[in-house]
Design brief:
Elements: H1 2-19, E1 21-23, E2 29-33, H2 38-45, E3 69-70, H3 73-78, H4 80-90, H5 92-102, E4 110-118, E5 124-127, E6 133-140, E7 153-155, E8 163-166, E9 173-177, E10 185-187, E11 196-204
Antiparallel strand pairs: 1-2, 2-9, 3-4, 4-11, 5-10, 6-9, 6-11, 7-8, 7-10
């Protein structure tokens, strides 16, 4: 059963990537629908992991590093859906398809998956991802209409980091971009007023320092 479900994660994503909408301005990104199997979206959104408490919102996730949750081996052991998703994105067919579609350099990379439960007041300043991240995908998990404008904000670069648009937040929708000098993005152009759940899936370089985060 696990093998079948793992294959379902890979197969569902491969079909999603084929249907993705490629946007070229102000940088290349891809908008996604039906990213994961429906049962896995439900399972992850319902994980028995309480939202972090006592968080501080200063525009950077690393401010709250102590409360962040990753699909590390321990979390995968506790929650089978986390293992299924991690295994799906280790599938060589998935890696090959991402490389073919986006041009991402994924040779020798490792999978890093973060489970985010962002509380009202959360925001991220416009930023670009560090060079060790070779691929970034955000998968949104909830269907709450109040979150429709709570997706990832797309910005132009300096000096003004002008707001361009927001990737639509919705259940099993997503966004891909390949980190680079111009991939300015954030969260918070539209204030967050309710809990926002998402997955951030990265392929990171083999020398990633915080190995405890890896799947």
């Amino acid at each position: 059963m696990d093998a079948l479900t793992k294959n379902a994660v890979a197969e569902t994503f491969l079909a999603c990537l084929e249907r993705s909408r490629h946007v070229t301005q102000p940088f290349y990104y891809w908008l996604l629908e039906d990213v994961l199997p429906e049962a896995d979206v439900d399972a992850v959104a319902a994980l028995a992991i309480p939202p972090p408490q006592g968080t501080h919102f200063h525009g950077r996730r690393e401010t709250n590093n102590a409360t962040r949750v990753f699909f590390d081996p321990e979390t995968q052991e506790r929650f089978p859906p986390c293992r299924r998703i991690a295994d799906g994105f280790k599938d060589e067919r998935v890696i090959a398809a991402i490389r073919a579609e986006t041009g991402a350099h994924l040779y020798g990379t490792r999978v890093r998956i973060e489970y985010c439960q962002d509380a009202p007041g959360f925001w991220l300043e416009p930023h670009t991802d560090i060079a060790a991240k070779k691929f970034t995908m955000v998968i949104y998990l909830l269907s709450n209409p109040a979150l429709r404008l709570a997706g990832t904000d797309i910005h132009e670069g300096p000096p003004g980091h002008a707001y361009v648009t927001t990737a639509p937040y919705g259940r099993n929708l997503g966004l891909i971009f390949i980190p680079g000098a111009n991939t300015w993005h954030g969260v918070g152009h539209h204030p967050l007023r309710t809990l926002r759940k998402s997955l951030i899936i990265n392929y990171v370089s083999a020398d990633w320092r915080d190995t405890f985060e890896l799947a």
